[in-house]
Design goal:
7 helices
Length: about 220
């Protein structure tokens, strides 16, 4: 086994999946049946059947009409592959051409082309494009993100770091109240704003002008 075999197999699988997706997006089988139905309708009026030494000519006076019907069916079948928006018109036209081929082209190519074109035209008329897949709803008891239904999601690091708010799971402390200004606390002088030397009983404070010496009594 060569080393290129896995790569070739993978490429074949990829091509097959692409063809399946392309085939599913259009009335593929309807176009195939209509195109195949046109071949016997166009061929049999110009063919000769050889039986031993006996040559049986199957051509009729309407040979040109059979050729036109067969070519039109092939064109309609190919149009169903590449122009899917004309599926209703192509399907109705294929059905009418199949009915006309019965008296014109040897009973519609010995009923082979007639049946193929008739079935293909009916499939083309009834074909509709598929709907795109819808998102499946989440199962019961589960939220869209996989958390249980009704659960509060945890706060992220950015939310916890928001200034002015406590971190999640911690109790907020009381607001910090600044101390009173102006040296008054409930109507009395605050100790933090007491004048220098107010509690100095030695009389050596620079506030009394003695410059650190006892004043003369």
């Amino acid at each position: 086994m060569s080393a290129e075999t896995p790569a070739a197999a993978g490429q074949f699988t990829r091509r097959r999946l692409q063809f399946r997706a392309w085939r599913g997006a259009r009335p593929f089988w309807a176009g195939l049946f209509v195109a195949l139905g046109g071949l016997p309708i166009a061929y049999f009026p110009y063919a000769n059947l050889q039986i031993g030494h006996l040559t049986l000519a199957m051509s009729t006076t309407a040979g040109a009409g059979s050729l036109i019907i067969g070519v039109l069916l092939v064109v309609l079948g190919v149009s169903l592959w590449f122009q899917k928006h004309v599926r209703v018109f192509a399907g109705v036209a294929a059905i009418l051409l199949a009915l006309v081929s019965i008296p014109v082209s040897n009973l519609g190519g010995f009923l082979i082309g007639f049946l193929l074109a008739l079935v293909g035209g009916a499939m083309a008329v009834s074909w509709v494009p598929g709907e795109p897949p819808r998102a499946e709803p989440p199962p019961e008891g589960k939220a869209t993100d996989g958390a249980p239904e009704g659960a509060v999601p945890a706060a992220s690091a950015d939310d916890a770091a928001f200034p002015g708010f406590p971190a999640p799971g911690t109790q907020a402390s009381g607001p910090a109240v600044p101390g009173p200004r102006g040296g008054m606390d409930d109507g009395e002088p605050s100790q933090a704003f007491t004048a220098p030397g107010a509690h100095d009983l030695s009389g050596t404070s620079p506030a009394n002008g003695a410059n650190g010496r006892h004043s003369a009594g």
